[in-house]
Amino acid sequence: MKPSAYSAASAAARVPAQPGAADAHRERDVHRSGAPDRGGDRDRSGDRGRGGSEDRARGAGEPVGAARGEHTHSEPPAPRPRVVVQRSSVRGQVLDALRTALLSGELRPGEVYSAPALGERFGVSATPVREAMQQLAVEGAVEVVPNRGFRVVRRGDRELAELAEVRALLEAPVWLRLSRTVPAERWAELRPLAESTVRAASSGCPATYAEADRAFHRAVLALAGNEQLVAIAGDVHRRAQWPPAGAGAGRGRAGLIADAHEHTALLDALIAGDQELVRTLVGEHFTGAR
Prior knowledge:
- This protein has 13 helices and three strands.
- The chain has a three-stranded antiparallel beta sheet with strand order 1-3-2.
- The protein is 62% helix and 3% strand.
- α7 runs antiparallel to α13, α9 runs antiparallel to α10 and α9 packs antiparallel against α12.
- It is mainly alpha-helical.
- The longest helix has 25 residues, at 157-181.
- The protein is elongated and about 55 Å long.
């Protein structure tokens, strides 16, 4: 049975060190550090000449070599402070603010915006703004302009029509399949989400409605139990929500309310198990989906 690190250390503390290669290694260590070799500096692990300044450098309770970033055989290195988590949180908040500005029309299609200028606007450094803008570039909302910043993409009718077609191909068959397999009580559980889209539409805020709209569709698709479908359909849905060039904030309040009421009508038909009505409403909803 292999001895544990603790028993090996205890044995080393009890048995006197024998002259030989180990002493030669310790002499070289002492020569490199410039510190004299004192027999009383032996620690519990049996090492000689590693007390004093190195102990103070690594702090109490840290393994030998931790101050130099070395790995030990008995335990993993200490974790670093989680500064990245805080920065990611800031980036997430900036990303949400930028999405709202895009949907509301504050960031206009065709215009170029720099990370430092937007950072001043949000009261943060340019770094989280730049990271958020890179994410928006992945989503197709902006494009990188070297040495200048990011240009808000101009959306044409053809692009929006293509995205609507992709959404219909992804979602419509799933809705129809679920209408035949999901019991009425499960559909009824989605009532609060459908009603929240109506309230969001009534507010007239495109960003508020966009979030509620995606939440409802995400909950429906989640019933299929396919996480990849939910992720891919959600990405396409988000892309389809960016307003086209020259459309300001996109659909007006009346258009948002009409779209939201299609959710409640669909849910009523699904709960009632009316397959023909569900097929008709799904077709209408995704034909003009945005």
